[in-house]
Amino acid sequence: LGQRLVVLARGPAALCAFPTAAELGVPGPQAEDRPFRQKGGETFALALLEDFLRARGERYSGGISSPNSAWTSCSRLSPYIAWGHISIRTIWQATEARRREAKGGKWGKSLQAFLVRLQWRCNYCQRFEMRCWMETRNICSAWEHLLQGRTYVFGDLALLNGLSDDERVAAFATGRTGYPFVDACMRCLLQTGWLNFRMRCMLVSFAVYNLWLDWRCIAALMARRFLDYEPGIHYPQLQMQAGTTGRDLRCYNVVRQARDQDPDGNFIR
Questions:
Q1: What's the mean pLDDT when you consider all of the chain?
Q2: Contacts 24+ apart (CB under 8 A), 119-122
Q3: Are 140 and 149 in contact, with CB atoms under 8 Å apart?
């Protein structure tokens, strides 16, 4: 299975004919490619979908929370959707046909769960089109009074140990916070451009509740790290995990997440 995913990730040699990032004027670190990212193209997208529906998808339900199992249990189609290499309709029709063929069981449960998440994706994108102001404004304006610069002041500033906004952002962005599981997740993004949903949520929660950072100061850097960046998912989820929707607070305990999702430390290593 691992070999199949590696093969699917290799792009055609013809990609080398495209202009380089330097030639396009992309600045600094943003010009660097990800050594282990998925490669684009409809051919790869369709092959990945077939592999998910025939081999990997059975483990989707119950296998997408841990970064160890999610690597192959998730569909891994999100970059191809975001870049327009495969349509939601194509994925939906193929998945629904396979779900009916499965006739229940673990396969049926997993594919139904996958279809629900496709619906969520479309819902979030459509809502963002109607409320695109949430890219720069808190949904719940009551959070604004907590801001000092780019810091949400939740308590005594001495708890930040004198670290500036820039120092905390830099530690977060480079995977050097000192929290092994958090740093491993960021290193994964830097190397591959992909991370499973729960771990993405944990990163945002950590930035806001542990580092006291305004979600807006990590929005662009996280967008650049996600190979599957989609504004309609990105900004609503940033605010949801930051708690600025005014509906609920989702504060992840990063130590517990490490114990639950990576008990043997395989992902961290």
A1: 91
A2: 121/81, 121/88, 121/230, 121/232, 121/233, 122/88
A3: no
